[in-house]
Amino acid sequence: xxxxxxxxxxxxxxxxxxxxxxxxxxxxxxxxxxxxxxxxxxxxxxxxxxxxxxxxxxxxxxxxxxxxxxxxxxxxxxxxxxxxxxxxxxxxxxxxxxxxxxxxxxxxxxxxxxxxxxxxxxxxxxxxxxxxxxxxxxxxxxxxxxxxxxxxxxxxxxx
Length: 159
What we know:
mainly alpha, 57% helix, RVT-Znf
């Protein structure tokens, strides 16, 4: 059975048109392009030998795992103000998951969805993973969501 993948062109357009900072747009572009330096990508490029997730240790660390499938990320999404994907199960496809979170306003047009928060939440999950790996700092789930909200608000209110 072949599953259809979302249009990468549409995802790139959404990333570059997101109401967020240039660094977060670049981060989204790197996610879509599969160029973030996660353990799985580092092993493929012969830079590292272990592709296991630094946080949970139970799966290979790819971008999709870090942002959506790692138990840490899953708890963040579960406590966030966003709807989970159908049946509450994140896809094995990074692009499908990105399409879901970047299109919540289209999926739920009758609700008020703070779509501007999504890129910042993805950014915070990524930043937290790096701080966990490199300095051993582990952030609380709710603190992560609050920090993403703070980041989004600061960006919206900049002069």
